[in-house]
Amino acid sequence: MPRLSTRPKSRLLVGLAALVALLLAVACGGGSDAPQATTPAGAAPDLSGVTLRVADQVGQNKAVLDASGALKDAPYKIEWSDFSAAAPLLQALRANAADIGGAGDAPVLSSLGSGAPLKVVGASRGSPRGVALLVSKDSPIHSVAELKGKTVSPTTKGSVGHYLLLGALREAGLTPNDVEISFLTPQAAGAAFDSNQIAAWSTWDPYIALSEAKGARVLRDGDGISTGLGFTVASQQALENPAKRAAIADFLVRQGRAYAWTNSNKEAFTTLFASLTKLPEPVAATVVGRRNMLAVPIDDTVVKDLQRTADVYTEAGVLDKKLDVASFLVRSLGN
């Protein structure tokens, strides 16, 4: 009787083994976007040599994290830098002068639309009342429609103030061409507003609260126009470093805890916030009272809201071309 060959069976076993190995590799996150393992399985990465460079706006995020104690025992060092607005903060990230930083949805889109090598790694949602269109206490203007023919500053181009102005004008039946738009830094806009060189100022806290303390009136806040979304943005270079990527993931978790702490400890936070930011305590209380910031996952709702904002900016000419925002979002860090 002829002897049967065992070679086909051997080839089958080899093929099955290769397939199992491939499936295990995929299941363990072996895709191109996954950070490469640098420590044994199950072991936490050593972050003691990592310095995470965090960019902030007017010291607000640092105040939140310091007051809550959320960074206590963080296994890495943090180097803070401070900026007056989102535009210079995002420029610092683009220039690799910082690893991560926080900004509103509108300025983040402006930066991404200009080709900045950045990714959105964390999201938060707060009260849309934290952005507002202001007029002076003695202004005869009592509706957005009355701004026609007037000079208005939305602060910096592509800011949350700019987005609110666009929405408020559309709601009132006006277009950007119906007003004289003057883009200014927060400090320059504040000075122009105080000296009545501009009829209205679209800005955000703490600038709203500081102006309200001088008698400014809110003509239209962001409720119903602004998404209230804020984002933590990371440089591509930082994300490509496995140790920094792990530190960023840890920072996002701590940041989320800090936001929750401020909402349940408003009185204590107000005192600490005033001390850390050097704001007058009544102004700090106003800012804290309407923050209500919470970390949220980067989910389909966030993607949809951000895409809507991007489409408005494309229509207004702030963005040169339509953006597919989903391609800039990283859902796997801190969620």
Write the layout of secondary structure elements.
Layout: H1 7-27, E1 51-57, H2 60-68, E2 77-83, H3 86-94, E3 100-104, H4 105-113, E4 118-125, E5 131-135, E6 151-153, H5 160-171, E7 180-181, H6 186-194, E8 200-204, H7 207-213, E9 217-221, E10 229-235, H8 236-239, H9 242-264, H10 266-277, H11 281-289, E11 294-296, H12 300-316
Parallel strand pairs: 1-2, 1-3, 6-7, 6-8
Antiparallel strand pairs: 3-10, 4-10, 4-11, 5-8, 5-9
Protein name: Aliphatic sulfonate ABC transporter substrate-binding protein
Domain Solute-binding protein family 3/N-terminal: 51-265
Main location: periplasm
Give a verbal description of the structure.
There is one protein chain. By secondary structure, this protein is an alpha/beta fold. The chain is built from 12 helices and 11 strands. The chain has helices at residues 7-27, 60-68, 86-94, 105-113, 160-171, 186-194, 207-213, 236-239, 242-264, 266-277, 281-289, 300-316, and strands at residues 51-57, 77-83, 100-104, 118-125, 131-135, 151-153, 180-181, 200-204, 217-221, 229-235, 294-296. It has a 6-stranded mixed beta sheet with strand order 2-1-3-10-4-11, with helices on both faces. The longest helix has 23 residues, at 242-264. The N and C termini lie far apart (65 Å). Residues 1-41 have low confidence and may be disordered.
